[in-house]
From TrEMBL:
Record's keyword annotation contains Hydrolase: yes
Gene Ontology MF annotations: peptidase activity
Listed InterPro entries: Peptidase_S78_dom, Prohead_protease
Name this protein carries in UniProt: Prohead serine protease domain-containing protein
Biological source species: Yoonia tamlensis
Residues of the Prohead serine protease domain: 18-150
Superkingdom of origin organism: Bacteria
GO biological process: proteolysis
Length: 176
């Protein structure tokens, strides 16, 4: 099974303090993403119980760690994370600046599906995931979590399409 990714906007709940501490939801339960997948409550429980350090990456690039997640937990809303951007690392400084300016407003999870079933809309109900990393990303996939999203906004639809194209291209390149 290969590593998969799901995107989620940082949303209104995100906070950045002291220029480097960041917190927010990396995944929201019960909301279908653009691929039709829905993460169910408890999907991360077994993975989190293993105590493995969840990596903080830049745009899912394992060669670009940008910080550390100090807290990763499930609550009734979803997967909540809190961590520190490492400003001693060039990409960490860049990420802190971009998040503070609002240029980067997305989080994305990197995971392996352990248990899932097809739903009636062509997607999956994800009931158990092995969480590997949470990345700061440019394009979120879970549109309901976007900051100041307008569901029928043509520009937002274009950006979502572009995000999908980038994700598809990344997947194709990873196969080679």
């Amino acid at each position: 099974m290969s590593l998969e990714h799901k995107f989620c906007a940082l949303g209104a709940d995100v906070t950045v303090t002291d220029g480097s501490v960041i917190s927010g939801y990396a995944s929201l339960f019960g909301q279908a993403d653009q691929g039709g997948d829905t993460v169910q409550p408890g999907a991360y429980a077994a993975s989190l119980a293993q105590g493995r350090q969840i990596k903080m990456l830049w745009q899912h690039d394992p060669a670009q760690p940008i910080g550390v997640w100090d807290e990763v937990r499930e609550d009734a809303k979803g997967l909540w994370v809190k961590g520190r951007l490492l400003t001693d690392v060039a990409k960490g400084r860049e990420a802190a600046s971009l998040v503070a300016a609002g240029a980067i407003d997305g989080l994305s999870i990197g995971y392996r599906t352990v248990k899932a079933q097809k739903n009636d809309k062509g997607g999956r109900l994800l009931s158990q995931l092995e969480l590997w990393e949470v990345s700061l990303v440019t394009f979120p996939m879970l549109q309901e979590a976007r900051v100041a999203a307008k569901g029928d906004d043509p520009a937002a639809a274009t950006m979502r399409g572009l995000a999908k194209a980038f994700d598809d291209a990344r997947r194709l390149m990873a196969r080679d």
